[in-house]
Design goal:
The complex is a heterodimer of chains A (111) and B (119). Chain A is 0% helix and 43% strand. With 111 residues, chain A is mainly beta. Chain A has a single domain, classed as Immunoglobulins (Immunoglobulin-like). The radius of gyration of chain A is 13 Å and the shape is globular. Chain B is an all-beta fold and 119 residues long. Chain B starts with a strand and ends with a strand. The chains are: A mainly beta (111), B mainly beta (119). Chain A: Immunoglobulins are composed of two identical heavy chains and two identical light chains; disulfide-linked.
Chain lengths: 111, 119
């Protein structure tokens, strides 16, 4: 069982927007602005898409945005494109004995 | 450009040992904390361990504490993971990742190396 809770799957049509949620506790998501999001295509390594809740690394499309409210962080992808179809994982710093915790992952299907 | 290349994965029997390596290039390796993250087949990501830039600090997930040891050789730009007393549940792709300076996220990842623990 993952420490952070994500929906198993979401879907959307090209051009639409989708949002993936990531729910934790006050010991991780809610307590710190250290949420990050990773995109993983099948058979590939994860790629950083969002860090520190809402910051985008250089080279990541501005169609990807992040936010947080209380113990829940969100990744929004606007203007869905076929290449956005992938697994998405959230991660957060945690004040427990571990370093970071991950969500279970969300499979995004572009219809 | 930043490159991380893992090696050393393979098939090992339960109770056996394996040493993974990660060769880094394209950045000043000695300036960065590094980490290992694993992904069991068809499952999500699990943080395994990290090591500070000078090897002063290490930390491990409870699931591997006492069995795995992370180390690095800054002269060789290499990161290692010594895995002992391996169990079936350690079967996974192991990724080497760079930790962004002073932060809590992984900005570059290797392509991963598969470790299979089976008799």
């Amino acid at each position: 069982q993952s420490a952070l809770t994500q929906p198993a799957s979401v879907s959307g049509s090209p051009g639409q927007s989708i949002t993936i949620s990531c729910t934790g506790t006050s010991s991780d998501v809610g307590g710190y602005n250290y949420v990050s999001w990773y995109q993983q295509h099948p058979g590939k390594a994860p790629k950083l898409m969002i860090y520190d809740v809402s910051k985008r690394p250089s080279g990541v499309s501005n169609r990807f945005s992040g936010s947080k409210s209380g113990n829940t962080a969100s990744l929004t992808i606007s203007g869905l494109q076929a290449e956005d179809e992938a697994d998405y994982y959230c991660s957060s710093y945690t004040s427990s004995s571990t370093f970071v915790v991950f969500g279970g992952g969300t499979k995004l299907t572009v219809l | 450009q930043v490159q991380l290349v893992e090696s050393g994965g393979g098939l090992v029997k339960p109770g056996g040992s394996l040493r993974l390596s990660c060769a880094a290039s394209g950045f000043t390796f000695s300036d960065y904390y590094m980490s290992w993250i694993r992904q069991a087949p068809g499952k999500g990501l699990e943080w395994v361990s990290y090591i500070s830039s000078s090897s002063s600090y290490t930390n491990y997930a409870d699931s591997v504490k006492g069995r795995f040891t992370i180390s690095r050789d800054n002269a060789k730009n290499s990161l290692y993971l010594q895995m002992n007393s391996l169990r079936a549940e350690d079967t996974a792709v192991y990724y080497c990742a760079r930790i962004s300076t002073g932060r809590y996220y992984f900005d570059y990842w290797g392509q991963g190396t598969l470790v299979t623990v089976s008799s």
